[in-house]
Every structure is written in C-alpha cells, then in structure tokens.
C-alpha cells in the first residue's frame, strides 16, 4: 500500500499537484543537508570540544580547562549537561559525531512532525513538505548539522514542552524542559510561559531535574569550581565575534556602553509591553499564546543577552508556525523581512564593496530579531488601540474581520494548505 503512494500519476487537485512538486524537493533537501553538508569538512566544529570534554569526564580529567583567549568553539555545558552527554565518548570521535548528527536530524524531523500535529496538519497536506523544506533550507538547521550542535534535540524538547503544556501535563512538561535546561540553559526563558499561565507544577520538575543532575555530576567532575569561576563568567560576558546580540554587535562596532545599554533597555520595555498584551488579552487562546509568547521571549533573549548566535533561531520555529492561525501577528510582509534576516543561509558579503557587505552580513540577524519583536509589538499595539477606540476591549483585541468568520478573505490557512479549499479548481473554464 505504501509503494502505491509512490506510483507516478497526474495530480487531480491543486493540493495533489503541490504535494507532487514539494515532496521531492523536501526529501532531497533533507538528504543533502544530512549526508552531504553535515559530513563534509567545515572550519567550525562545535562537536569537537563536546567530545573532548566527555572523554575527559569519563577518564577523570579536568573538563573546564578551555583557553578563552582563542576564538575556537568552547565547551560551555554545565555539569548536569556533562553528565548527560558523557556517553558520546564511549565510541571513537568520528562515529560518535555521525551518531550525534543523526540524532539531531531525527530530532528535527520529529519536531517537524509534532508541529504539524500541533497546528492540525496531516502528512497529506501540502503544508507537510513545505514546512519540512523550509526548515532544512534554513541556516539554523544547516549549521546545526554541519557544526555538530545539539540544537535539534533542544528544538524537539521545546515542541514537546509546548504540547504537554497545552494538555496540562505539567510535571511531564517540566521534566522535558528540565532535561533541556540541564544541557543547554538557553531554553530556560521559556519558563516565563507557564509562569504567566499559572502552571506552577511545571517548575517542580523543570528546576528539580537540573538541580538533581548537577548534584550527581558535581562530585564526579574533577574541576567543578572551574565552571563557576571560569566558564560561567565567560558565558555571561559579551564577546565581539560570532555574536549577533546587541552587546556583541555593539562591541564589534565600538558603540559606547551607554548606547548599548539604552538599546537593550528599549527592547526590554517593548518585550514586556508585548508580553503584557498577550497575557491580558490572549492567554486563554492557548496555542496562539504559548507559541507567540515563547517566540517573543526567546527572540528577546537572543537579541538582548550577552550571546546570540544565528542558529539559535531554530527555537523560533513554533512561533513562525503561528502564521497559519487567523489571529497571527506574522501575517504581514515586515515580519517576513525580519524572518528572512535570521533564517536564510544566504551570505551578503560583497567582493566589490567589502565594508558594505560585512555590515549587511553582520547586522542582518540582529536587525531581523529586532524587527520581529517590533512587528509583534506594533501588531498587538494597533489591535489594542483600535479595540479601545471602538469600545470593545472586553471582547479582546482581534480585529473586526477575525470576529466575523463569514467575512471575505478569512479562509483559515490550515484549510487552504490542506487542499480542502480548492479555489482554483472551482473556477469556470
């Protein structure tokens, strides 16, 4: 029966035609990124320091002895993460790296599948190959696989966390988040979402698991205090290379400290205002609220804190998927200009105008994250001002055309992408 699905035939609907066109591109792109890009040589190797630290841990040697004067990738995982990833060093480094890349590739594909289910798409929908192609064509997936980073597993944990939050499985949601935090604390700001929703049980396991793993790992690591005195301060300090956050770009361009602080403060105020609007008027719209609020919090973290790297943007996939929701804040072209800035694999370096090219390349990610936050705030702010002017704040912020399902042009995107809304096929010949 499965092989019958592969039988070449002519599409009878627009949805079938889109599927026939998109699935080969999606599958071959996945194969190319996993078996070609990820296995070819790259100058950046995030996996090497991870393997080295795992091997040192298993052999009772110092783990946190990095030379931070070098610009090579450094090992920054906390002791809890060291404990969890140590089995990587049981086999030789080459096979271990291939297994690690495969693990992250599978995690990304599982995250894609669960996101489809979360937003009520089937594998038969054209949305399935479209989203898979978009994910694996993005910089964040390509460099996560080629550099040998753990971002794919963190994305899967994020998606599972969202699904469990929606089902009110708070302890399990916290357990998933706790394991992710234990390895990569970058995901920790997502705990703002259950905090705003009052899902307090999440914190029992989300905080308890990293603490327990740290307690187990601490006596097993030869130099745990080096993490406290050397690694943690370095991770919390902005650097002027491979860093797209405001502090990182500010240092690179030599901006005065007061200007960097002012930019961070302005964006922080904007984010707080956005979160208040979401909490006040959308917290009962579970899927929209959780995915949008988490996206805002994570984008703010990448932009405002000491370190923000482009491939962190993988954690914004659930936020970007909200475009299929009728009240999404991403249904406008400025939002997708922003997304282009931090998601594409394009390089904007120019041989003929090198200074301009460097500025375009180095600034596009920072400006993309910033513009996404500005767009989100402006869309919600405009909805708020319009609703207040019309005296209907008690009914929420959704504009009039969303409140009337029969209004023209309001066909849900999920319906359109599923092929159930065959506009083109219904036109007269």
From TrEMBL:
<keyword id="KW-1003">Cell membrane</keyword>
<feature type="transmembrane region" description="Helical">
    <location>
        <begin position="172"/>
        <end position="195"/>
    </location>
</feature>
<keyword id="KW-0808">Transferase</keyword>
<feature type="transmembrane region" description="Helical">
    <location>
        <begin position="362"/>
        <end position="380"/>
    </location>
</feature>
<feature type="transmembrane region" description="Helical">
    <location>
        <begin position="75"/>
        <end position="91"/>
    </location>
</feature>
<feature type="transmembrane region" description="Helical">
    <location>
        <begin position="20"/>
        <end position="36"/>
    </location>
</feature>
<dbReference type="InterPro" id="IPR018584">
    <property type="entry name" value="GT87"/>
</dbReference>
<protein>
    <submittedName>
        <fullName>DUF2029 domain-containing protein</fullName>
    </submittedName>
</protein>
<dbReference type="GO" id="GO:0005886">
    <property type="term" value="C:plasma membrane"/>
</dbReference>
<keyword id="KW-0812">Transmembrane</keyword>
<comment type="similarity">
    <text>Belongs to the glycosyltransferase 87 family.</text>
</comment>
<feature type="transmembrane region" description="Helical">
    <location>
        <begin position="145"/>
        <end position="166"/>
    </location>
</feature>
<keyword id="KW-1133">Transmembrane helix</keyword>
<feature type="transmembrane region" description="Helical">
    <location>
        <begin position="258"/>
        <end position="279"/>
    </location>
</feature>
<feature type="transmembrane region" description="Helical">
    <location>
        <begin position="98"/>
        <end position="115"/>
    </location>
</feature>
<feature type="transmembrane region" description="Helical">
    <location>
        <begin position="202"/>
        <end position="221"/>
    </location>
</feature>
<feature type="transmembrane region" description="Helical">
    <location>
        <begin position="286"/>
        <end position="304"/>
    </location>
</feature>
<keyword id="KW-0472">Membrane</keyword>
<dbReference type="GO" id="GO:0016758">
    <property type="term" value="F:hexosyltransferase activity"/>
</dbReference>
<dbReference type="Pfam" id="PF09594">
    <property type="entry name" value="GT87"/>
</dbReference>
């Amino acid at each position: 029966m499965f092989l019958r699905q592969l039988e070449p035939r002519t599409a009878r609907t627009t949805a079938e035609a889109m599927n026939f066109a998109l699935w080969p591109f999606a599958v071959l792109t996945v194969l190319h990124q996993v078996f070609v890009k990820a296995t070819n040589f790259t100058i950046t190797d995030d996996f090497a320091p991870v393997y080295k630290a795992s091997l040192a841990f298993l052999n009772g040697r110092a783990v946190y002895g990095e030379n931070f004067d070098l610009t090579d990738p450094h090992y920054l995982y906390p002791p809890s993460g060291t404990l969890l990833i140590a089995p990587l060093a049981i086999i030789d480094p080459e096979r271990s790296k291939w297994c690690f890349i495969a693990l992250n590739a599978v995690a990304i594909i599982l995250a894609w599948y669960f996101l489809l289910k979360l937003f009520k798409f089937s594998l038969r929908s054209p949305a399935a190959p479209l989203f898979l192609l978009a994910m694996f064509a993005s910089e964040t997936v390509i460099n996560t696989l080629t550099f040998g980073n753990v971002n794919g597993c963190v994305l899967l944990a994020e998606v599972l966390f969202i699904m469990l939050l929606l089902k009110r499985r708070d302890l399990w949601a916290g357990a998933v988040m706790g394991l992710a935090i234990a390895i990569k604390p970058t995901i920790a700001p997502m705990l703002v979402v259950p905090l705003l929703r009052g899902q307090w049980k999440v914190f029992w396991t989300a905080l308890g698991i990293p603490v327990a793993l740290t307690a187990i790992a601490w006596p097993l690591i030869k130099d745990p205090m080096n993490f406290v005195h050397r690694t943690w301060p370095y991770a919390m300090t902005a650097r002027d290379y491979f860093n797209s956050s405001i502090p990182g770009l500010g240092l690179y361009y030599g901006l005065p400290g007061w200007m960097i602080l002012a930019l961070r403060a302005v964006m922080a105020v904007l984010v707080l205002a956005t979160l208040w609007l979401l909490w006040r008027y959308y917290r009962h719209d579970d899927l929209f609220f959780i995915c949008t609020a988490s996206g805002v919090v994570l984008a703010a973290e990448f932009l405002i804190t000491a370190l923000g790297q482009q491939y962190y943007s993988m954690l914004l996939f659930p936020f970007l998927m909200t475009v299929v929701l009728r009240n999404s804040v991403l249904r406008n072209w400025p939002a997708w200009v922003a997304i282009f800035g931090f998601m594409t694999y394009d390089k904007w370096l120019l041989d003929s105008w090198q200074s301009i090219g460097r500025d375009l390349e180095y600034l596009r990610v920072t400006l993309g994250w910033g513009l996404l936050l500005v767009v989100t705030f402006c869309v919600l702010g405009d909805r708020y001002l319009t609703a207040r002017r019309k005296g209907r704040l008690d009914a929420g912020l959704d504009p009039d055309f969303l409140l009337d399902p029969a209004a023209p042009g309001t066909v849900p995107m999920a319906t359109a992408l599923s092929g159930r809304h065959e506009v083109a096929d219904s036109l007269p010949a």
